[in-house]
């Protein structure tokens, strides 16, 4: 097992994806430097308690990033389009991180993008992530993990607190196959590439641990939870005027939409979870029957 001399930097370490990367790196005894806006937040204090170096940096402030990225072995980051400035802000922040990493001389970067980012989907938050990818390629050695549908998107519906029939709902037909990945496995794949960027050919991998229709998802959930479960497809209009989400769910129906490499995913994460394993992992919190 490779142990890098310098710490690996993680932006977003107090969040879902960044936290999964931290977990995977710490499990391999790798030193981690978390870049956070507030070093005294509860999340930052929890990271310090686990032995993580915590430093202040802001994705809107290139100089703070450059300082925080000095003398690191690698960098993981992701971007989000949430907030008032939407996808324009996402691209701006991603480019700021890329440029700061280049100025700091970061040896290589792993960026968590999205499955299909490179395929001109027209989905706004896919296109913004692709623009970040393009900037990274211009300025620093980079690898891209492109996750498919997050299994965690289903978690709120599994934990509905009831004891009768469980009904899963999304604005997509129940017979459309959907590739999916657990966040834990995104973190594991990213950690592998942070430590060994030559673990894949090329500069990107689309990640998935399972491919199921939503009707099949309901069957798997019923089997794992021991609770009657069915799927109910919703009309796309439930998304209202959210053009980004409408575009994504419409894209799901253009099979194949996601085009994950299951073999390479398993190469990076030998114990990658299928949906049944992920549901089982949810434990008592998902079993409120």
Automatic annotation (TrEMBL):
Residues 6-259 form the NmrA-like domain. InterPro entries: NAD(P)-bd_dom_sf, NmrA-like, NmrA-like_oxidored. Pfam families: NmrA. It comes from the Bacteria. Keywords: NADP. Belongs to the NmrA-type oxidoreductase family. This is Uncharacterized protein YbjT (DUF2867 family).
């Amino acid at each position: 097992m490779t142990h890098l001399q310098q710490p690996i930097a993680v932006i977003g370490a107090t969040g879902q994806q960044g936290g999964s990367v931290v977990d995977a790196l710490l499990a391999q005894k790798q030193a981690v430097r978390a870049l956070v806006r507030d070093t005294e937040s509860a999340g930052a204090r929890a990271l310090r308690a686990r032995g993580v170096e915590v430093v202040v940096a802001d994705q809107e402030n290139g100089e703070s990033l450059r300082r925080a990225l000095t003398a690191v072995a690698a960098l993981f980051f992701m971007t989000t389009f949430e907030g008032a400035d939407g996808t324009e802000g996402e691209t701006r922040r991603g480019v700021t991180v890329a440029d700061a990493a280049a100025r700091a001389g970061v040896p290589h970067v792993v960026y968590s993008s999205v499955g299909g980012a490179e395929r001109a989907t027209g989905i706004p938050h896919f296109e913004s992530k692709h623009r970040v990818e393009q900037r990274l390629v211009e300025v620093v050695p980079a690898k891209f993990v492109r996750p498919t549908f997050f299994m965690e998107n289903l978690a709120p519906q599994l934990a509905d607190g009831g004891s009768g029939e469980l009904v899963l709902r999304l604005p997509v037909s129940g017979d459309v196959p959907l590739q999916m990945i657990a966040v834990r496995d995104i973190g594991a794949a990213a950690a592998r590439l942070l430590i060994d960027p030559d673990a894949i050919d090329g500069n990107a991998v689309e990640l998935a641990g399972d491919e199921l229709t939503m009707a099949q998802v309901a069957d798997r959930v019923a089997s794992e939870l021991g609770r009657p479960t069915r799927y109910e497809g919703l009309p796309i209009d439930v998304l209202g005027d959210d053009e980004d989400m409408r575009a994504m769910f419409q894209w799901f129906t253009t099979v194949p939409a996601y085009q994950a490499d299951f073999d390479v995913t398993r190469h990076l994460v030998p114990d990658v979870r299928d949906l049944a394993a992920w549901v089982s992992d949810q434990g008592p919190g998902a079993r409120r029957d």
